[in-house]
Specification:
- GO terms for molecular function: RNA binding; rRNA methyltransferase activity.
- By secondary structure, this protein is an alpha/beta fold.
- The chain folds into four domains: 1-123, NusB-like (N-utilizing Substance Protein B Homolog, Chain A), CATH 1.10.940; 137-169, no CATH class; 174-229, Alpha-Beta Plaits (2-Layer Sandwich), CATH 3.30.70.1170; 231-429, Rossmann fold (3-Layer(aba) Sandwich).
- The protein has helices at residues 2-16, 20-30, 35-50, 52-59, 69-84, 90-104, 107-123, 134-142, 146-152, 158-168, 185-194, 220-223, 232-239, 258-266, 279-292, 340-357, 380-389, 414-417, and strands at residues 174-178, 198-205, 208-212, 227-229, 248-251, 271-275, 297-300, 313-319, 361-371, 393-395, 409-412, 422-429.
- Strands 5, 6, 7, 8, 9, 10, 11 and 12 form an eight-stranded mixed beta sheet that branches.
Length: 430
């Protein structure tokens, strides 16, 4: 049953264009699986998508005729288990794949499935390390489109790129943010350790740490609004705003709301305007605010490229819409759908948001620009273009304690903190 569900989930992603994280959450919510099956289901779905190009490289030599996408998905999923999951017997993988093919695709396809998978088991797969061209080798080995690696080579050495790719294919750590208005970090850590969680990276950032154990979303502390999930890199770029006290703050692209909630921890009598263009995501932000019991946030559903906010802010954060290449561990399918044309379009949107919200920043105020991607076009290029277009804007060189920014901008790569890839730059208005 579990593997049949994993196959259905993969078809939802590949055939219907659904996001993998949302599909997985939906299946785990709507089907009764034990904890082991939940982990295996999640592993198979994410792993198959993460390693799609590698799996296709493995399977292709064994396919003698044209096959449909639904059968190819089943073959990818099965070979993923054979090559990456050593606890699952090969005969069991093949037998279950044949049954899934019979029930979901057709009897003839089940025979093809049986023949191909037995041949893979008998003959083995091609050795990726024998590929001579370094870009092609990294592309196939880590399942990242060729053009992205070629682009990264303009800015990074191959060993840095390989570390990035390797980390992006690892399961993400479960990073936690504490709602300091309800309980302090030390108390939370003590309670989680009593419940059997292993707590990691306690001293990286003020309100956060990582854990190993069951999903925190089922824990009482989460339901009581004391804990939330937020990646370390997202917390680190939010910290660069250095909000405090009575600051009036605009979070111009607030969804999914983690940065707004982090900032709320830092304020005493200040206030945050949390805006996002996506109506459904605005509803999610409101739900978070209610769960956490936060009363210093006004939520809006407007377009930050054109809306008149009618007030001046001490600090503004623009976590702009982006290509999302830094978060492919959570949504691995997005790396296969991006093009350079997408980056150019996104950089135009990012600049238009910055250019518009800048007028609502008080003189002497701070503006932080961030993305969850690893593309110079959307990051450094946008930052320097924005500064160049405005005489009253300059990079903020204030020497804040523990700031990541040393030379105008900072790129967090996934391997730096075992988190997502994020970019941040900080400006001050003259």
């Amino acid at each position: 049953m579990m593997r049949a569900l994993a196959y259905e989930a993969l078809c939802d992603v590949y055939m219907n264009g659904d996001f993998s994280d949302q599909v997985i959450d939906s299946y785990l919510t709507n089907h009764e699986l034990n904890e082991l099956d939940k982990k295996l289901f999640t592993n198979i779905v994410y792993g198959t998508i993460q390693h799609q190009m590698t799996l296709d490289y493995y399977v292709k030599p064994f396919i003698q005729t044209k096959i449909k996408k639904d059968l190819k998905i089943l073959l990818w999923m099965s070979v993923y288990q054979m090559e990456y999951l050593d606890r699952v017997p090969t005969f069991a993988i093949i037998n279950e794949a044949v049954e899934v093919a019979k029930n979901k695709i057709g009897f003839h396809q089940s025979q093809i499935t049986n023949g191909i998978l037995r041949a893979v088991s008998r003959e083995g797969v091609k050795d990726v390390s024998l590929i001579k061209d370094p870009v092609h080798r990294m592309s196939i080995k880590y399942s990242m489109p060729h053009w992205i690696i070629k682009y990264w080579r303009k800015f990074y050495e191959d060993d840095v790129i390989e570390d990035t790719l390797k980390t992006l294919n690892m399961p993400p750590l479960q990073w936690i943010r504490v709602n300091s208005k309800k309980m302090n970090k030390e108390q939370v850590i003590e309670l989680l350790e009593l419940d059997g969680y292993e707590v990691l990276n306690k001293d990286v950032i003020e309100y956060g740490f990582a854990i190993q154990g069951p999903s925190i979303q089922h824990h009482k502390l989460f339901n009581d609004g004391i804990l939330s999930m937020q990646d370390i890199s997202s917390m680190l770029v939010t910290k660069e705003l250095y909000a405090s006290g009575q600051d009036l703050i605009l979070d111009a692209c607030s969804a999914p709301g983690g940065k707004t909630m982090y900032i709320a921890n830092q304020l005493d009598e200040g206030h945050i305007v949390a805006n996002d263009i996506n109506k459904q995501k605005v509803a999610d932000i409101k739900s978070q605010i209610q769960r956490l019991g936060i009363n210093c946030v006004t939520v809006m559903n407007e377009d930050s490229r054109e809306y008149d906010f009618q007030q001046q802010f001490d600090r503004i954060i623009v976590d702009a819409p982006c290509s999302g290449l830094g978060v492919v561990r959570r949504k691995p399918e997005i790396k296969y759908n991006k093009t350079m044309e997408d980056m150019l379009e996104l950089s135009d949107i990012q600049l238009s948001i910055l250019n518009h919200v800048k007028q609502y920043l008080k003189p002497g105020g701070t503006l932080v620009y961030s993305t969850c991607t690893i593309f110079q076009q959307e990051n450094e290029n946008v930052s320097y273009t924005f500064k160049k277009q405005h005489e009253d804007i300059e990079f903020d060189h204030t020497e804040y304690k523990d700031s990541l920014i040393e030379h105008n901008t900072h790129q967090i790569l996934p391997q730096h903190f075992n988190g997502d890839g994020f970019f941040v730059s900080r400006f001050i208005k003259k």
